[in-house]
Amino acid sequence: MLKHQVLVVGGGLAGLRAAIECAGLGVDVAVLSLLYPVRSHSGAAQGGINAALANMPECKDDSPAKHAYDTVKGADFLADQDAAEILTTDAPARIYEMEHWGVPFSRTPEGKIAQRPFGGAGYPRTCYAADKTGLYILHTFNEQAVKHRVKVYNEWAALALASDGARNHGLVALNLQTGDIAAFAADAVIFATGGLGRVYKRTSNAMQSTGFGMAIAYRAGIPLKDMEFVQFHPTTIIGTNILMTEGARGEGGYLINKDGERFMQRYAPKAMELAPRDIVSRSIQTEINEGRGLPDGGGSVYLDLRHLGREKILERLPGIRDICISFLGIDPIEKPIPIQPGQHYAMGGIDTDKDGATILPGVFAAGECACVSVHGANRLGGNSLLECVVMGQRAGAAAARYVQSVTSAPSEAVVNDALKKTSAEVDALLKSEGKERLVTLRDAMAETMSDKVGIFREEKSLAEAVALLRELRARYRNVGVDAKHRKFNLDLLRTIELGGMLDIAEAIAVGALARKESRGAHSRLDFKTRDDANWLKHTLAYFTPDGARLDYKPVTITKWQPEERKY
Amino acid sequence: MSQTVTLRIYRRDPELDTAPRYQNYQIELTPGLTVLMALYHILENVDKTLAFRSSCRSAVCGSCGMHINGMNRLACETQLAPLGNEVVIEPLPHLPVLKDLVVDMTTFWEKYERVRPYLISLKAPPEKERLQSPEDRKKIDEFIDCILCACCHTSCSTAWWDKEYLGPAALAKMYRFVADSRDEGGIERLKIAAREDGVFRCHTIFNCTEECPKKIPITFGIQEIKKRVLWGKLTGKL
Lengths: 567, 238
Fold this sequence. Notes:
heterodimer, A: alpha/beta, Flavocytochrome C3, Chain A, domain 1, seven-stranded mixed sheet, 15 helices, globular, B: alpha+beta, Ubiquitin-like (UB roll), two-stranded antiparallel ribbon
């Protein structure tokens, strides 16, 4: 049996940061990752990472407290304010540390880390490295993991936790390269498995962003929090939904409808294109729904960068220019970019405390798969990379403290039982004569989520979505796989993942149906305003075989009383 | 009017097949269809045993490097339409095949690790960020864009035959630090470059530079390291 004190599941920003922390503290840590770590979707983050460094002339009086307030207001007051303050207070130290590790930030004329304006922020607070910030940080963290000799299990898929109900003892995982299923004994497991975008049809997320890590924790009895809050990024390119960074608007890009109008003046007259993402996405969708979208039939408006000029685009936004040329055949120096909102981020996730700990001792989570909650009902751009590095560090440190405090080693019997059970399930799937197939069920799920649990929601369609998703979960019990080989069996892996995706999709829809208000990214056409009297609370979804069972818990309010959001 | 393209795909499961074979798949060309999306179409609708790597599908993760019509490219950003009526898709050359288009990357990552691929600083860092002028930052502009897709490494005819040669990807990573004004790895790094398996194995064939999906001037970087190694030797520092 493979053994580590701490096993980090996921090799993106949060996972690597947690592993580096553990390694630095002398703990035996390993990373188990579905992909080589540098392939993780953190690398697709473009625009930057927020911290009140006050490096730009316009932001001399910026502070972590102001950053926290902007985060809480952007969150439509659903963020836990103590957690938001931790996020923004830890931020400068984490940024300086990354610079010391070699992250190639763009620089001000005097050589400091450059910062750009981002949506919902009172100051230019987003530290950036051209428009490839996530890529550069991810590679730098991978370099630090190499330096710290962190053991990485590359191309392994986590399948299940090994819990006895009172404590976790390890993890069961599938080695994609060999097809073997193996067990790990570990005092602590840290989930850092990223987002769930592939639950939706239109998403900026990678093919591997299935939310399966969330599903593993959920099935082990750990609640998922605030799952109904799903962020739709305003600007993804039409068709493939590849991200066009918010930095494009931060640098001065316009949003234009078919009449050539900068329509944001009707929705957010002060902030214009730099209102928070929930507001901009709703504005774009409203333009499209009311017939002012582009006449291409796909539902889009223009992101126009032409007035920024060639030099600025080449210096600050070279990555998105390349994407436009490769995937649209359009050079944004010469032509506006047709864009549409696309699923981008899960505010919700595995319920954790401020140190990444879950209710199950020995299980931690950090990054997008977790919900602390710092993003509440709507995440500000530039806060997700920040959450990965701040909470990755904190979860790593907390897991290290935990493994030093546990008095007994993980039970190999519990881990072996989990291995047997999971292996039997995978064997059953391989032998199943069930007639249902991956593609049919997945497409039905993704279309249901995009059509009925999207930017605008209402009772009738949400109820239909819940019913449809429950039907799909029932049909999934009759799923089979056609490919029977061992190595790199994508049919098998993706079919296993679909089971988790259906669980999560149902939890999102059930949470959204129950929440009878509009808050942040959860916008109900039948309950158009925020209802603090009844709904200033976090949703907790607990797994049951029949679907999510909901509970609620209060939001931590410290300094800032909820107020109306105006931009 | 619909147009059909034949994808001729390299297939092999070393456990089952004694030799590789090529399998043809017909696919209908739709606007904007990339090689990667065509592979997904086959995986989901035609042949569920096909194996390939992919993740971001937006040319930033480096998973889907493969040999397409004789060139190493990222499948996700390669449009199918301009490639002709028959498109040959093979794994990256000269690495062991795990299955179909999936190669064993072990030696690639070992070489990456051999160049000490991390910023080396001897002095304690300042409390805040180190200062770096925009001009100095610009010097690493292209080389930090490397996504480690291995398109360069597996196009290098020296690396094909000389299994010890560090190869263009590892050396591009080394140059990223050599050229970084903040790095103090200086002589130690150049010692690695100066070894028999280092920069002087590069015969400036330029395959790496030509096949880099990120258009990084890798050959230039390797020659820059050679210059520094030579200067170090001439001045007795190496």
